[in-house]
């Protein structure tokens, strides 16, 4: 999916000074008018910055795996790429289901929004989800196009009428993602404060980690030359996939959701530290589970 790259070090990503709100630069800590409730010192740290400060060793493992290093060097066998791509395509199905659930629970404003206005948080989230659905379908078609051109088999279905997929063909990361998606699409949430929080945190986190991972791989590939046809996969990774997953449009897409998420959270707690902490705890749970799933999504390679 289309995902400017943030430098990743062993301690995690560096923090940018701003994110985007629509087309305008926005401080990560927008000026929210505090209420008369318990107002703290108004920490300047946004929710996403808070999450990125946690579990940094996990973050590194999720974004700097041996699989990514092999992809950058063009030494991954087609069989391993095929199996990983097939699982990544199945991940998209959960992504689509979660998009539908978030669209279902969004509370849209009754008052009309001026045509040139970006709108409130819920309207901007609506726009992002619509774009995400368009992007995920385009991404799947891109997967299939590259797979066909480079002879990669991405079909895990059994040869039967049902076309079912055996559990043993699913990598651990996909299984963990399926559990996450299932938990967020059951329609049984009792949360009235930001009912979309967990789903949006999951979307931001998976896109953020994916972009950081492939940006790291892209840096490893610098100076490796462009004789892609000599790669073990014929150039599928270095010529097609890595450029696709590290382009400017991708990070703009991620930054847009980050701005929506942070602003929605700031509006919801309004400076009330009890509410802020409650929101953070809910988001932390998803972030931790997401990092585990991302780390487990990278297949093992020879020697690791």
Automatic annotation (TrEMBL):
InterPro entries: Haem_Oase-like_multi-hlx (IPR016084), Polyketide-peptide_reg (IPR053261)
SUPFAM superfamilies on file: Heme oxygenase-like
UniProt-annotated stretches for the region Disordered: 1-40
Protein's name in the database: Heme oxygenase-like protein
């Amino acid at each position: 999916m289309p995902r400017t790259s943030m430098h990743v070090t062993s301690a995690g990503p560096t923090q940018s000074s701003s994110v985007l709100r629509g087309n305008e630069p926005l401080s990560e800590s927008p000026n929210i008018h505090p209420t008369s409730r318990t107002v703290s010192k108004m920490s300047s740290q946004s929710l996403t910055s808070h999450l990125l400060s946690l579990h940094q060793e996990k973050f590194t493992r999720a974004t700097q795996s041996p699989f990514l290093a092999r992809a950058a060097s063009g030494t991954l066998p087609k069989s391993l790429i095929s199996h990983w791509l097939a699982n990544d395509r199945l991940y998209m199905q959960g992504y689509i289901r979660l998009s539908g659930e978030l669209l279902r629970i969004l509370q849209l404003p009754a008052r009309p929004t001026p045509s040139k206005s970006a709108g409130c948080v819920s309207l901007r989230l609506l726009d992002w989800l619509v774009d995400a659905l368009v992007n995920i379908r385009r991404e799947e078609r891109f997967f299939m196009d590259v797979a066909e051109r480079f002879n990669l088999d991405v079909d895990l279905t059994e040869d039967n009428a049902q076309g079912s997929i055996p559990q043993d063909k699913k990598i651990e990361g996909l299984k963990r993602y399926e559990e996450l998606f299932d938990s967020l699409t059951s329609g049984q949430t009792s949360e009235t404060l930001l009912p979309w929080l967990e789903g949006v945190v999951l979307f931001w986190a998976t896109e953020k980690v994916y972009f950081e991972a492939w940006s790291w791989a892209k840096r490893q590939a610098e100076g490796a030359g462009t004789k892609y046809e000599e790669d073990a996969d014929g150039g599928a990774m270095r010529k097609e996939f890595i450029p696709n997953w590290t382009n400017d449009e991708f990070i703009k897409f991620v930054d847009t959701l980050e701005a929506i998420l942070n602003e929605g959270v700031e509006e919801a707690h309004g400076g009330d530290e009890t509410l802020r902490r409650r929101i953070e705890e809910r988001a932390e749970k998803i972030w931790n589970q997401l990092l585990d799933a991302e780390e487990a999504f990278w297949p093992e390679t020879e020697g690791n």
